[in-house]
Amino acid sequence: MSSYFFTTCVIQETPNYHTKTTSFELDTIDEAECEVQFRFKKHEVPVLARAMGVSGRFTCPQGTICNGMEALCMLFRRCCYPCRYSDLVSMFGRPVPELSMITNQVVDFIYDQHAHRLTQWNDQLLSPQCLRRYAEAVARKGGALANCFGSIDGTVRAICRPGQIQQLVYNGHKRVYALKFQALALPNGLIGNLFGPVEGRRHDSAMLVDSGLLTALEEHAFVDGQPMCVYGDPAYPLRIHLQAPYRNRPYITPQMEAFNKSMSTVRAAVEWLFGAIINYFKILDF
Questions:
Q1: DSSP code of residue 241
Q2: Is the peptide bond before 46 cis (omega within 30 degrees of 0)?
Q3: Residue/partner pairs of 185-188 with CB below 8 Å, 24 or more apart
Q4: 249-277: string of b/e by CB count within 10 Å (b at 16+)?
Q5: The dihedral of CA 156, 159, 164, 170: what is its sign?
Q6: CA pair distance 49, 57, nearest whole angstrom
Q7: How far apart, in whole angstroms, are the C-alpha atoms of residue 46 and residue 41?
Q8: Rounded to whole angstroms, how far apart are CA atoms 107 and 89?
Q9: Where is average pLDDT lowest: 23-32, 103-112, 193-202?
Q10: What is the 3-state secondary structure (H, E, C) of 89-155?
């Protein structure tokens, strides 16, 4: 009798995660709550859905069906921090396994449809006209290089210590187990090119070679026949399309020091870009 009573109490106290009790509707959510919950304003969500070509519905392997708007909002909510899948149950009325499968479906869809915009040379974002405007913006901020249109850098994202091949992902500089990414930051706040993830021990210069970005710059980074360049830290080699600060500090002249200082100021934008992404979607740092 006592065992039966205990079981009954547990069932009553446990939330029912396996029954869809509510229907999600974006229109019913308050404007301020939408921005807090999804990191986007209510009128921006449909615009993003159209821009990314989000389909009318997503179908999971086991048959679960979810309309595109709900699935996209589900992903946005999941990317906010702190947020576990169980925290989404009350808003979307779906069990945890369905929430996981649907968000993964959306991530796969976005990557399959739009990854080339970041992993390959983007002719729209990096057209000669855009490169000229970027370079002018860098110069207006005090950059010494008149043909520099962006900054390149790598970022280290810490991970849990793996059970095997620990030495491959251990970053000695940061003293963490990590994965690394390489990003080309533009003056308009967008990422012009992204590469990764790679093992945490990989050097920035090796990541540059593997990414193929330097080859792409040599093929496309020209305005009216003049080569354009990006700026990186001392870890990167000097090339026509890739500039870095003057090294060998004991022999640096005041002019060289002024050059380094002016370019260091504008290069900080790439660090702000990494910080902004983590700030808006903190699950990436969870």
A1: T
A2: no
A3: 185/150, 185/151, 185/152, 185/153, 185/269, 185/270, 185/273, 186/125, 186/134, 186/149, 186/150, 187/134, 187/137, 187/138, 187/141, 187/149, 187/150, 187/269, 188/134, 188/137
A4: eeeeeeeeeebbebbeebbebbeebbeee
A5: positive
A6: 12
A7: 10
A8: 19
A9: 23-32
A10: HHHHCCCHHHHHHHHHHHHHHHHHHHCHHHHCCCCCCCCHHHHHHHHHHHHHCCCCCCCEEEEEEEE
User: Which two tokens mark 104?
Assistant: 């993964």
Separation in Å, CA 258 to CA 30, 238, 262: 51, 18, 6
What pTM, to 2 d.p., does this model score? 0.81
Per-residue pLDDT tens over the stretch 246-284: 987 778 899 999 999 999 888 877 778 888 888 888 888
How many Cβ atoms are within 10 Å of 75's Cβ, its own excluded? 21
pLDDT of 286 reads 74
Cα angle value 9/87/34 (rounded, 5°): 140
Report the alpha-carbon distance of residue 34 to residue 32 in Å, rounded: 5
CA angle 58, 62, 64 (to 5 degrees): 40
Question: Which residue in the block uniquely carries the two structure tokens 């093929």?
Answer: 219
* Whole-number average pLDDT of the chain: 88
Amino acid at 178: A
Cβ–Cβ < 8 Å for 252, 171: no
Instruction: Enter the tokens of residue 217.
Output: 């710059």
- CA–CA separation, 210 vs 190, rounded Å? 22
User: Can you tell me the distance from the alpha carbon of 71 to that of 238, in angstroms, rounded to the nearest whole number?
Assistant: 45
Which own/partner contact pairs does 160-167 have at CB distance under 8 Å and 24+ positions apart?
Answer: 167/201
